[in-house]
Protein 1
Amino acid sequence: MEIRPASDRSLLVSFGSEISLEAHRQVRALVEHLQAAPAVLNLHPAYASVLIDFDPRRRSHRDIEELVRARMSLALEKTEQEARILEIQVSYGGSAGPDLEDVARHTGLTASRVVELHSSALYLVYFLGFSPGFPYLGGLPPALATPRLSAPRKRVPAGSIAIGGSQAGIYPVESPGGWRIIGSTSLRLFDPGADPPARLGIGDHVRFVPV
Amino acid sequence: MSVLRVIEPGFQTTVQDLGRFGYAHFGVSASGAADALAMRAGNLLVGNAENAPALELTLAGGAFEFESAAVIAVTGSDFGAGLPLWRAVELPPGSVVRFGQSLGGARCYLCIRGGLDVPKVMGSSSTHLLTGVGGRALRSGDTLPIASSAIRRWKGNTIAPPAHTGPLRVTEGPQASQFSGELYAASYEVTEASNRMGLRLRGPAIPSPSGHMVTEGVALGAIQIPPDGQPIVLFVEHQTTGGYPKPANVISADLWRVGQMRPRDRVQFERVTMEGALGLLREQEEWLYSLV
């Protein structure tokens, strides 16, 4: 675990510099154990790090660092973390998945094989980031890896199921985006009026079911 | 209940408070006032809690009618409203406050005694324009109830606004060691493609470090260098994570100045130590609280 300031009001806690399940486990533990900590304003988990925003008028970098070390030793004692599995119904291809054919062409597979592979994998929500509720999913079958679009779309519809390089994701709200859209779900993944506002959380598992 | 009516919204007017915290791990950045210092000062002048929802005006315009008598404070940049700035002003019933083009920076705040009575979404009344969390920019005909949640008497003094000249001060960012000071060697121009999400700058390209970087959380005021070498200052509606290296981060005491920057403004960066940055923040907080 490496801890360093990212700004005069934040601290970056890193668990190595690679995407790994072990780093993810630590990220998840830290996020769980820092909820509602005094003067901590926001937590930004990612693949192998957590950025902690805090109120610099109330706490110093040193205070937060001590808090992190104390909470991490607590967190690692209870290692059992439950994983939920959420099934997400997807309509693949056509207007719901305008890039399915491109992904098939790039990967040398048929469109139906792309769908078969994509919906056979079990995905892990590494973290939510980029835009509200956007899950960064690990577990994409390597054969499906496809580079992002060279020019991002200005508007990607909410519910778009996407591939960006070797990552998978879902656009929960309409936003710009450069990932390849292979399908769409009608499941609402982000709702500001719900508590929590995002349907998926860090550490959840996802399976895609073709409809 | 008293009401504020939007006659003209201006270029881009939103309801803001000091931000929505505790949701970055759901991908939602804090949002909140772009020049939080001006908004806090305005709220303090009219006797509100500093977090009371107020209007943030951007670059130009806006006309607002007050059905009942009101006490307001206009802070931030001068948008030519013909009212004294940085002090509380009493308005008779039926008053219309009309703003014009900015004569200074990018943002002006209209703070109303009692605060705006806007429903909270995820704990805050601030508008996150990009995602629609907390609502949208105001339109003609919108009406906003005025709450009665002032917490102290208003005062008649005028504040001398904070100065905003000189380089923008920064501390080292997480990838500072991968850069060699190019950020400080030239000045950069704020481009038209700037908004509450970030300020896109134009100037001498900064060489991007080689090697892949794993996406990580990003802080408010982070200066990131995308492959084209043109810096982006991440602002109140920034993405919560990103994969570009960050040589520096704007200090807390200068974030309000970022909120006042307009397209074509020039910006120069200057490094300060962490202790220096925190000292400047302490001075700024003491200044703010000496006003009330």
Protein 2
Amino acid sequence: MDLLTFSLNNIFALLQQMSVFLVIAYLFTKSPFFKTFHIHTLNWRQLPFLYCIFTVFSILGTYFGLPINDAIANTRAIGAVLAGIIGGPLLGGAVGFTAGLHRFSLGGFTAFSCGLSTTTEGLLGGLVHILLVRRYQQHRLLCPWVAFFTTLVAEITQMVIILIFAQPFDDALALVRIIALPMILANSTGAAIFVSIIRDQRKMYDELSVTFSAKALKMAEKTIAILSRGFDMETAREVASVIREETGVGAVAITDKEKVLAFVGEGDDHHLVGYTITSSETLQAIREDRIVYADGGEKKWRCNRSENCPLGSVLCVPLRVDNELVGTINLFEPKNKLFLVTNKTLGEGITKLLSDQILYSRYVEQKTLLTRAELKLAQAQVNPHFLFNALNTIIAITRKDADRARDLLMHLSNFFRKNLKRTGDLATLEEELNHVQSYLVIEKARFEDKLQLEIDIDPTLLSLKLPVFTLQPIVENAIKHGISNMLGQGLVRLSAKREPECVRIVVEDNGGNFEERGKKGLGMSIVEKRIKNLCGEQHGVTISFVPQERTTIEITLPAKGCSE
Amino acid sequence: MKIRALIIDDELHAREEMEALLGETGAIDLLGSCGNGIEALQLINRLRPEVLFLDIQMPVIDGFELLNMINQEIMPHVVFVTAYDQYSLKAFEEKTLDYLLKPVDSRRLTLTIDKLRKTIGENRPPNYETEAIRRIPCLLGNRIKLIQLGDIEYISTGPAGVHAVTATDEYFTEVTLKVLEERTALLRCHKQYLINIDSINEIVLLEAGLAKIRTHSGKFIPVSRRYLKIIKKKLLI
């Protein structure tokens, strides 16, 4: 027989075997193990598994071989070399040794040399692994060309080993002349294709998870902005739109425990917002507080509202906030479309995310409510003492000076009107001063000569914006705790000045009684909290005092004032 | 007979209004009005009013504290006048004959006057619950200084009035020796002296059962025979 023809026949025969091999390789990449398999992060627990896989490949390579002249032309090398490249010399050596031992047990005049060479090939693969890792070229471990050339060198090595160890030498030479070319080519090509299958599958998974993560992140980003405004019908509709847009499902519905809060997508002509829930899957999800899934195949979703509803499958995920069920999120697909597993996972994930976001928005809302309530409390707190003392003063003045009494009553009504009306977050310094002015006129009447006022405001600051109700509580504190506790002459200084970095408002009294109060009272804490919330953490209220001499409250605000 | 009254309120207009209202009743002989607790003590000791119209919230010494510093023998009836009943009504009942809310309604004031007349007519002396004095108001120039009880070494009385003596200073006070003996932990050691037991450094025994106390700051004060026994007992000698 012509040597070349024989070799070609052998090549085709070997390629045929290799095809069977590659089918097995393909199946391997579809196994659940492969999903967790990352070449850069192989751990020790995965090695025994890889050992088994590659050993089986290697031994199968022997069995699928062609018996020639008492020897076997085979593809045993692929398993051993690849084990070496992927898992290092230990794995390569172990696989090569096991498969070699198996070949040895089958006998023939090349039994020993083949067993030895398979082990060597595994170690050779391992050597390439080490070289690549040392040079930080891990990403090339799954390069088809690396597999090709490594296997090429390995197979040439095998031929040399056969020539050296197989006896008689003439038989060995004759054999090598027949099998060398087909085996070298078939094994190298096979290894390269094997590796490229693994690589492509890996890449597919990675790309899939990248798009998956990107989708999830995009949804998270969009929904958090929406839910920061609270969870209601309006925001539910927007969230439903985002989910539908990102997942591409047929329709998305958000419900509370009784009714539909939002419905977006196919079938929105008869699934209307505000309807009570009729979907048995949704009701089941609420009742049993678990995810209910009707895939549209075995378990079909049936619309209870319309015969012509295009939707056929649904995923109902309970929406829990702080461990309390508040509603459901429902993803629908039409009857003619498959419900994607990725969308199922995304749907479940996004619901968890929404729960957290709703919880957070509730927390923020409550915090704001609390500050508002505290502000109201502070406003209410001013009243009784001040009001009754003011009225008592005015009544006394009525006897002597009706005009002055009338003027004081105007200030009193101005003060209360401002107190009641001020609901926004910010006011101008002028408005604040106007409020304080009325307060001071009345207190001045009450204390008469005992209270002296010095007011020094930079007129260019009058339009400065600051949190509403900032000045009044502090001026009131100066009077209530400072002046009214003094026997001697009381003095309150109020000034507002520009400084290079900020605006400084100072309220000072000469009572020096701050020590007795100990800490910032409720009113001042609220003022400080609101300045920090609305104007930035670096601003606020500082207190300094000299006992029996003075108490100074300094408010710092941004140079350009606070903005909404 | 008109009821002799004193108005105590730190606000000028409040005093004037009260004066006018009391004048309108025709039942009151107004002895005077004043704006703080020290002046009030002075006037009470001197004028012996039958009733005080007393503001609760006043600088330095509030209305309640003022009551603690008045001798039980000359304790007037007390009508509290306050802008806002933040103190519970219970507190008022124990410590006062009546209370009025500012702005004071003249019809309501009439009821108070009736009640006063009745009580005074029955000759029922006021017996208000008083509390221990924690600090002694003293005049220092035109300022009032509150001396903590612990800072005081002894109190002495003489023709120039009552003086509270600390390690470094001596202050005049309107509070009488008797009130201080009754409502503080200071011990009587002599007709004219109260001693803070914590400030005793040594007791030097003299002839005829007399003794003198040396305070921590080195001042000597006499101990009379009558009180030496009591002091010894207190000191577990």
Protein 3
Amino acid sequence: MRAGNTAGDNVFIGLTTALLVMIGILVLYPLVYVLSASFSSPEALMAARVTLWPVEVTLDGYRAVFSTNRILMGYSYTLLYMAVGTVIGVVMNLVAAYPLSRPDFKGRNAIMALFAFTMFFSGGMIPGYLLIRDLRIMNTMWALTLPGAVNVWNIIVIRTFYQTNISIELLEAAQIDGCGNRYFFIRCVLPLSGAIIAVMGLFTAVGYWNSYMSALLYLNDSSRYPLQLVLREILIQNTQSTVNSFLADAAEQDRRVKMEFLLKYGIIVVSSAPVLTLYPLAQRHFVKGVMIGSLKG
Amino acid sequence: MRMVTRAATPAARRNAALLSAKKELVKNWDLYLFMLVPICFVVVFNYGPMYGAQIAFKKFMISKGILGSPWVGLTNFQRFFKTYTSLNAVRNTIIISLYSLAAGFPIPILLALALSHSPFPRFKKIIQMITYAPYFISVVVMCGMIIQFLKPRTGVVNILLGLIGVESVNFMAEPTWFTSIYVWTGVWQGMGWGSIIYLAALSGVSPELHESAVIDGASILQRMRHIDLPGIAPVISIQLILSAGGMLNVGFEKVYLLQNSINVNYSEVIQSLVYKIGLKSSGTPDFSYATAVGLMTSAANLVILLTTNTVLKKMNQQTLI
């Protein structure tokens, strides 16, 4: 205990610790449950016998998940959209943020105002849809990756990072050596941007990983659906043709209903495990991103 | 001599300013080149739809395009205020967003306060890692989990309720449950992540203040109240403005996924209505009406944001504008 804590403080700390433990359990339990359920037998699930640990351990659920390539196809399209979108987004926001961080860049307030206004006002879903249609990029990956490429919030975060991390002295020294803006950006600014590129890349990538709305709006060809839309068909809409494609083996109706329940837990695990297991490794970067963002709201 | 210089000043100054501006332009021409593509993107993808939003005041016909369609004035807006479904959507939107704000706004602050005073660093780290995790679950999976968990009899919530002797409830088929399900699952998913920003702000509160307060015999609770809260007030204020500004956009993605034919009376929000009228309708989609509804939402959001900003400014808090 910290010196100077009163008896009342110790009680208080005891209470908040108990509360934090409870919150931890409340958050963790559903995650553990999904994992356990995905390894349990469909019969145990339907008989409501799974409460914490797997019952009658089986891999049937995972066999069903990988019995067709729908999930893998979804994964590969998501990775494609994610990779393209993240690269475009990060490059775009870096080159936009650097000039805006320079005090000697004339007109930066006007440009910033032009950008910032879009954070608080938008034309809306339908005009956005009509625009994508008129640009003739409907049903292509550009419809998913280009409209959100310039992210004003990220630009503000990167700009703040540059303002605090790239000193004027460095620029002046470079300019005395006859180094122009382009070379300064490529040779000096970019090498110092590792941390912010990591942060922005992670945020953008997770954003693409999770999003389904723009794909729902702009893709009509279900063979190009990203993972989240495939998941939607199975988990939310219960589209029978899709569900059945996973359960071709389970012939009789009764077995099928049970397997469907198990399949969903398996699918939840398979689709969330990569991000959930990787995020603790990158937690430091995510937290840093939120913190730089909070410096200048 | 002095007189002459002074007389020449305005013109000379203007010239000098123009010259220096020109010099800046020439010197930094490549910085403008940097900005070119991002500016084009913003103009096309953000301001483009704003231009297209004029169809809210028109009777949009695909064959005639945005410019060629005839003006109809405020007809589309009037229609909105005359239909039951849209007024009901406004009502649901306000209820859901106020409920979300009331539950989802203070909890991350309290969590951050509790964590920051925890004397066990390892325990603190573990709780942080656990509570951040749900943020990385996608909306679709989250809603899939909610639906699985709330199934009557076989869902884990009902299994646990059964253990303490409560009858199984078919939550998703009871429309009145919708709002609470939406809000509390949102708290579950977002509280840890939301607390990061407050933890960062709390780490910026000067430790000397705490030390001298301890010497004066202040309890932890008193220090939270009189040192921590005032210390993070600017961040709280900014966060409040930002969440107020997005109020009418209530997590449409999640609402849409949790919506079913039974709860639609409670779950239809403005954005889901726009989607249905504009893009999902079985007949001819009414682009103009849907755009009008969307435009009103955007405008109302802006007004709410500015109002919150003004109120907080009057209260001498840190504000956005």
Protein 4
Amino acid sequence: MSDRACVIIADDHGLFRRGLRQLLEGAGFLIAAEASSGEGALECAAANPGCVMLLDIMMPDLTGLEVVRRLNERREDVKVIMLSAREDCDAVLSAISSGARGFMSKCTEPDELFAAIDLVARGGTALGACLATTLGNEVRELDRHAGLSEQRRHRITERELEVLRLLATAKSPAQIASDLYLSTKTVQNHIQALYRKLNVGSRSAAVVEGMELHLIQPGG
Amino acid sequence: MQSSATAAQQVQHELDGIVNDFTHDLKSSLAVVALCAHVLRSELTERPELNEYIDAILDETRHCVERLRTFGDSVDLQGKAGETA
């Protein structure tokens, strides 16, 4: 008897379901049920408590996101991993906020999917590697947007921002001047302008303020 | 000026939708191809001479998926650049 989780597969593509069943059974998972629609997925969840459900987003009647919302409302004993060809942040965040315990790309490698099922069955949350990269990029993008807005608000020029980034390293004004092909005096003028605009009195305070305003990121 | 910016945003929004649908549909099909190749590999353990073909299918599908991701990202970045400008 395998100690791997029992699984419900909910996807409207018959061949995909069959292939997935074969791979999962070969890896020691027990397939409790299959569903080809959103309503079918809800019925399977009610009839097979304690399972992990692999749930597609795009289905003919209810979307996977609606299914996971309803499962959550009904407090069904099922842990859902969205298994979708969608890899955008909106889909991932909607799914997780609706109650999904994981989100994996349909293009994921089988071993990564097996590990995700094991993790979710044990109570964890799983996110596919490519999706984690997408989310990370989005968070950095949000951070960059926040930084742009603060840069405009404080009227910090691009050159001053470059100087601020280099102030966050251990470089001296002379080294910064060399990096930027400027004179040391010009760099010192930029530093004084930064202090004034950020309302600080020291290099360390400027760097801390720059990080808090998302003008610069820790580690560069 | 503002209305042309709004119109450009509208076009970008529609383009994003088309690209999302397009990449989703192609990735769905590629996922089925890759899954079938994995199943064949698990079932054809006594025909190792076929592994080369299965590897080729998987390598090519991975390559196509990566190309689609890059394509989707580049369209997305163009849209964000337009918003920022």
